[in-house]
Amino acid sequence: MGAGAAGALVAIQLCETAARRRTPFELLLIDPAPEAGRGIAYSTLDPRHRLNVPAGKMSCYPDDPGHFVRWLCHHGEPGVRGGDFAERYRYGAYLADTLGRAIMAAQGVVTVRRLRTRATGCRWTTLPGGDPTARLELADGRTVDAHRVVLATGPSRANAEWAPEALRGNDRFITDPWAPGALDAALGQGDKEDVLLVGTGLTSVDIAMTLDRPGRTVHTVSRGGRLPQAHAVDPLPAAACTTPLHGLSLPALRAAVRQHIGRVMRTHGDWRPAVDGLRPVAAGIWASMSTEERAEFVARYGSLWNTHRHRMPPATAEAVGRMRRTRRMRTYQGRLAAASARPDGSLTVSLTTGDGPRTLPVGWVVDCTGPGLRLSDTADPLWRSLLDQGAAMPGPLGMGVATDDGRLHGADGSTTRPLWTLGAPRRGELWETTAIPEIRAQAATIAEAVLDPGTAPALPAGGGPARRRTRRPTDASGFPLSTHAAAATAYRLGVDRLLKVRAGAPQALRRSVALDPGFALGHAALALIGHECGADVDVSRALADARRAVRERADDHERSFVDVVSRRVLHTPADGDTALLRHLEEHPGDALALAVAVPTIAFSGLRDLDGTTALRVVERTAPAHGESWFHTSLLAFMRQEEGRYDEAGALAEQALAAEPASGHAMHALAHVHYERGDHEAGRERLQRWLAHQGRGGTHRAHFSWHAALHELALEDTVAVRRRWAEQLSPGKVDGVRALVDSGSLLWRARLAGAWQGPFPIGDVLETAPVDVLERPATAFVALHAAIALIAAGDLPGLRRLRVHALRADEVQRSVIAPLCTAFEDILEERWTEAARGLERLLPRLPGVGGSAAQREIVEETLLFALVSAGRCDAARGRLEERLDRRSSPHDRRRLTALSS
Question: pTM (2 decimals)?
Answer without folding.
Answer: 0.82
